[in-house]
Amino acid sequence: MSTKSSNQGQHYPAKGSEPAATSATMGNHHYEELSFYHGAAKLALNAALSPLDNAKVLMQIGFEPLPPRPTKTLFGRPALGLPNVFTYMSYMRKRDGFWGLYRGCTARMACQVVSGVTFHQVTSRITFQRCSHRRKTGCDGKREEDLNEEELRKLFMMATLRDLGGRLACIIITQPLFVVKTRTVAQFVGQEVEHSGVLASLRAIYNENGVLGYFSGLMPRLLGDLLSALLVASLTYVVNNYVVEDREFKAYTASFMAYIGSALTYPFHVVAACSAVSGSGLAAGSPPFMPLYSSWLDCWSDLKAGNQLKRGGSIFFRYYTGPQVLLGGRVVPVGNFPGSPDGLSRRL
Questions:
Q1: I need a labelling partner for 237 at 20 to 30 A (CA). Which of 48, 130, 182, 330 fits?
Q2: CA torsion, points 200, 267, 42, 58, in degrees to nearest 10?
Q3: In terms of pTM, does the model score above 0.90?
Q4: First to last CA, the chain
């Protein structure tokens, strides 16, 4: 009796519970380790591709130091071709040295790290009354393909809103680093040295534009990223649920839609880069290379009028779209081509 009473109120782990807990702990540790290596690999890749990104930024802000040459389009029409990204990078290296190709690399990596941490922290804290949702949809333990249309719609809305919330926070928090990176790269035009590091750049931005300078180009960047994410999520949902039935093909839908979303919202990123540089005190953000825009809408209107909202969108097949005439079957630019010291401001 005494033995029985002494055992009352004691709770022993169920058979196999300790190994299960240990397995779960090991699984979480393994997942965190894989996430770390995945993040480190993305960071290394981002750093390695800095020269490509720098060349693209310079194209976006309208800096074209190499003159266009007569060529033909894929359809055989006469045109003026601009150098591809590799020729552009070769020019950058000759002028700035090898390490000059990696201008702004520190700010770029810092932006990626802060963005990744912010996105994880924000999305992990966004909830939508899970218990209420599960009682209404009854989708506990179901695979996605087993959900009905209403459950899929609710799941899509929750995932999309969570993603947009995370992106919104990331863009706002990393905008100062985006401005630092863009202006550091833009220094290549006038060979200034004010933005020689992240802290030096932050001081230079404050001295030139005040606190608002840290958020130059925020609105077009915000609209571009959020509209692209919303467009990709919506198109993927519609195609996978109402158009495509092949499960293997569905795996590639999101990637294809991401390309479409990126192409459609690309003008916002061009305007964001120009807005981040305009009025910065750098040669790249001042006449004759770039006008002093009063707002990002002013920048959009000016670039649209000159057919420049897509510049930098192609890094291999690039064509001059400024003033030009056709003489003797050859296209010739009118006046000095933009991008040179004697060029016509931003018209490229």
A1: 130
A2: -50
A3: no
A4: 95
